[in-house]
Amino acid sequence: MKTPKFDVIGHRGAMGLAPENTLLSFKKALEIGVDGVEFDVQNIDDELLVFHDDTLDRTTNGCGRLLDYSLNDLRQLDAGQGEKIPLLAEVIELIGDKAFINIELKGINTASLVMKLVKLLDKRRFKKEQFIISSYHFSELYLIYEFDPEIRIGVIADDQPIIAFDFADEINAYSFHPSYSMLNQALIEQAHSTGMKVYVHTVNELDKIQNSRELGADGIFTDYPDRVRDFLANERA
Ligand code: G3P
Ligand code: MG
After folding, report:
1. For labelling, which of 45, 47, 216, 219 has a CA lying 20 to 30 Å from the CA of 85?
2. Considering just the CA atoms, what is the radius of gyration of the chain in Å?
3. Is residue 115 part of a domain?
4. How far is the CA of 96 from the centre of ligand 2 (A)?
């Protein structure tokens, strides 16, 4: 029997191996050979930046709230190993068609962010099968759905699976992104019965990689795409 496809999605690039959400991290993920790359997008000074937190302290040499700085100031910071906080345009230029991209919206300045994002992807001639837009925030995803129901939407959930799943079903989401702790076979079967893929976050340990695979998930977000690549290679051997 043919083994089902299992997508390896590099979380914030390959954040276990390089500073998260930097060009270095995305290059690392591509070098390992991922199917998809996940990153987080925020709207600052009318520009789309790839950054996870709402404060600078954890991942850069700056401090305080991201929104309190100009784009120019933010671009001077060190985001790890001398890397800058990248613009979305730089990231999608780097990734191109080497992997699909999962753009996670972080829930600020939503309406203008959504419009800018969709225009940028269109200008760069990204085809709809090359990207997923995901969020924990239903309101953002609803805007995308209203703008263009053909865009692939991923609904992220850390709790309340029924509410998140019903919403995903309502907007014909492409994929459901439960946390590993929420994962069970019934959830996967329910998603598959409505045509949704299940991408689990964030899975780094071998036993969890294996369990996600055995339960029938379609892929995982991982900080260590090298481990998943090796696991899949062993499976084939
Ligand atoms: O998209 C899966 C995962 O990235 C969601 O959580 O906090 O890592 O952006 P977070
Ligand atoms: Mg994310």
Report:
1. 219
2. 17
3. yes
4. 19
